[in-house]
Amino acid sequence: MLGKISPSGIKARWKDYLVLFSGMIITTAIFYMFEAISTNDQFTTNSPVGESAKFVFIFGSVLLAIITLVYVFYANNFLMSMRKHDYGLFMMLGAKSRVISRLIAMETVVIGLISTIIGLIVGVGFTKILSRFLASQIHMPLTHFSAFYMPAMWTTVIMFLVLFIIAGFLNARTFVKTSALRLLRSSQQSDWKQPKAVSLWVQAILGILLLAGGYYAMYDIKQLKLMAVAIGLVTIVLGTYFVFNSFFVMLLQVIQRSKMNTKGLNSFTLAQLKFRIRDYTKILSVVSLLFALALGAITVGTGFQNMVPKLAQGNGYYSVGITNPSSKMNALVDQIKDKSTITYQQKIDPQTKSVYYRIDQLQKQPIKYSEFVDKATLKAKISTAQVAQYRHNDSGAYQELWGLQAPDAKAFKIKVVSANSFNRITAKTNQLLMVRANNMDAATTTLTKITNLQAKQYGTKNNQLVGGSFATYQLLKGVFGSLEFMGIFLGIAFLAMLASCLMFKILSGAASDKIRFDMLNKIGTRRSVLKRSIWVQILGLFTLPGILGIIDVAFGLQMFSRSGLLIGGAYQTFAITTGGFLILYLIYFAVTVLIYSRIVVPKTKVEK
Amino acid sequence: MTTKIVQTKDLHKTYDKNSARPYEALKGINLSVDQGEFVGIMGASGSGKTTLLNILATLDQPTSGSVEIDGQDVTNFSSNQMADFRSKKLGFIFQDFNLLETLTAKENIALPLSLQNTKAALIEPAVKTAATKLAIEDLLDKYPNQLSGGQKQRVAAARALVSNPSIIFGDEPTGALDSTNARELLDTLSGINNQGVSILLVTHDPFSASFCKRILFIKDGQIGDEIESGDKGRNNFYQEILEKLGTFEQ
Ligand SMILES: Nc1ncnc2c1ncn2[C@@H]1O[C@H](COP(=O)(O)OP(=O)(O)OP(=O)(O)O)[C@@H](O)[C@H]1O
Ligand SMILES: [Mg+2]
């Protein structure tokens, strides 16, 4: 008989199960995707950073496993909050607790199994899409990469099955240990204690001091070196905990003491939020820290990536130098939108080991060259070359022109001669076309085609040898590509998981809030007022860790930029990623509000 | 002439009307409650007591018929009008979970007034007055978990009273209390009633019912019988209820 009751309970709450399943499926998919990409040698060894990238990926993998663990814990709590009442009822009716615990264990494992299988399928799809998208974004060829990767499959299946078997085991124990009555009543328990003022003050001050200390340590990385990271980690973790446990509570108390408290449902909303914040201190702290970690990973990752054009263009003014461009190449050059070009005549004389240029051409159309003035901000100065500069092979002008020549000419010295002398040299006259694309990101596809043709023309396999700032650009893109990939990937995965952790934690409390909202409805609270109270409460729970996380990153970036790891424009990237992050976060917030309202807001049935 | 606080005309309620198996829970209820009355509604389980109370309390709407409370026809109120009406004109005492644990007694009592956006300056004295009526002035700053069961029910009663409602509704208000606390709450309700507040209780407990001045018996969605306590005294009335239940429920 019980075998029938169990599925019937699921049917009645299929929407809540849908949330649980989609959450689990996405988690499994993300986990698989990361495993597939990070354990796949094809991807890591192909990347120019090779071994170090692999290390970073393993590190990310461990972090992801930890948060997955936390996530499964919260999802399981949500499942239990849904089932405690039903199963408690069966026990009241005389079902043996042994039978019930076997049932709940089975239900947990079956849910885990189904979501893992679907998650793997979704994961393969995700991996295919994401790897293609990222490969195009970072211009990194993933030719031998397959989205279906057996070792990653195994890791994922084992990881999740073990987690669910443990969860099922723990759930079963809860049912054996807890009496039926307590299970039935579990949703009505609330152990609210008004915190003591002294302890609040002490914790709030301590929390703020710790946070300030941590932020300062990160800011002062130049002096503190690696100590800054250690100090920052400890103080920020502790500070965050104390701030949630006291500072935010005190802030709410200030509002509670104001006249606002007696307006509408405010007294309830504020008190409830205060209670929740203290009750959720641990998860809120974790969410805030992971939020910072995720946001930081994305910001630093894309920050590196965005440095690439600046770094490349600071190293050289012209993107490519083309010797004797074919008509195909000329057509390609025409396609580049925002550009400037110069063409020089050139003769190579192997006897004198020199490359000759005409002085009149260099004077009439002088080349430009670029040099860094301030490495910290990636500020580069663009200057116009003087003919005299070509006498010194360490001058900016000489370096620029030298770098743009074909590989065989690079072995020789540059000589500038008069038009007459140039004509007397018996050698073939080459055309050297120098092209600057002002926007390298936009011209990447065309420039790649050009350099590929050049490599063929020069008979070299290595695109780096064709020279120009585009070669530097490609090299750096490759290096930072895997870092960015990692950053974006971990960032999104973390955010998705931590937001769902928070979601499940909040939704787990919905059952016990139902009675409160029922009562508020009876004493005459408008439905719209109830809904507003819900979204204010949930907004509070979502934004506070978010705000703290954003502040963490704002200071954490100081550590990167002041130690010279991240140069220029990082805060702009920070603003953009934060924006993107908030959108994703808001979606989770909206879903939580919707589901929560559906559970707690009483409906007036009117059938006429 | 006494004014009527509640008056219903030919009240019908059909659940799942558009389904294959509609169920008619109320089949033409006509009742009225006068100003200052203490009325009980009794009946077997499933007879329609809660259904009736929910409609009277504007928590649900009837399928047909009309309800007038304090001279206002509430039958066709919108859901917002219903909510506003409840907060201004009705008081509630529930069986279980009366108070919000995160709010002090004072804040709990003030809730109905806050909902009506009463000025802060007016809330304070209104809460004081209600608290004095129930002798809980010195409990106002405590949280519910610092109060005994009986004290909690008195705080809940103060919350029901604070907006000077036209009538107080209760659905099995003593259902979750032990006999001492049940008795204390019923005494309190009688006291409130003696100060002129109308009360309508739904119960199937004869002891609770014996505190009422008039009892309506409901059976299969219809009012079957009615008795009054008059000057009989509570014990005699209690006996009469027991007898009535004996014959009525056959
Ligand atoms: N939401 C509903 N949908 C369908 N039928 C309902 C609904 N609510 C109540 N009923 C039915 O209407 C009838 C009257 O129910 P009601 O809750 O009013 O009884 P009651 O007198 O309060 O019983 P009890 O003393 O057990 O509380 C019952 O047969 C019940 O099954
Ligand atoms: Mg009932």
From TrEMBL, chain A:
InterPro entries: ABC-4_Integral_Memb_Prot, ABC3_permease_C, ABC_permease_BceB-typ
One Gene Ontology biological process: transmembrane transport
GO cellular component: plasma membrane
Subcellular location field: Cell membrane
Membrane-traversing stretches: 17-35, 55-79, 100-127, 147-176, 197-218, 230-255, 283-304, 485-508, 529-551, 571-596
Protein species of origin: Lentilactobacillus sunkii DSM 19904
Upper taxonomic lineage: Bacteria, Bacillati, Bacillota, Bacilli, Lactobacillales
Pfam family, one: FtsX
Main location: membrane
Protein's recorded name: ABC3 transporter permease C-terminal domain-containing protein
Occurrences of domain ABC3 transporter permease C-terminal (ranges): 59-179
PANTHER family for the chain: ABC TRANSPORTER PERMEASE (PTHR46795:SF3), ABC TRANSPORTER PERMEASE-RELATED-RELATED (PTHR46795)
UniProt record similarity statement: Belongs to the ABC-4 integral membrane protein family.
Bilayer topology term: Multi-pass membrane protein
Keywords in alphabetical order: Cell membrane, Membrane, Transmembrane, Transmembrane helix, Transport
Automatic annotation (TrEMBL), chain B:
GO molecular-function terms, A-Z: ATP binding; ATP hydrolysis activity; transmembrane transporter activity
Signal peptide: none
Keywords, comma-separated and alphabetical: Amino-acid transport, ATP-binding, Nucleotide-binding, Transport
ABC transporter domain residues: 6-245
Gene Ontology CC: one annotated term: membrane protein complex
A Pfam cross-reference name: ABC_tran
Biological processes, Gene Ontology terms: amino acid transport
PANTHER family: ALPHA-D-RIBOSE 1-METHYLPHOSPHONATE 5-TRIPHOSPHATE SYNTHASE SUBUNIT PHNL (PTHR42798:SF7), LIPOPROTEIN-RELEASING SYSTEM ATP-BINDING PROTEIN LOLD (PTHR42798)
Stated family: Belongs to the ABC transporter superfamily.
Protein name per the record: Phosphonate-transporting ATPase
Native species: Lentilactobacillus sunkii DSM 19904
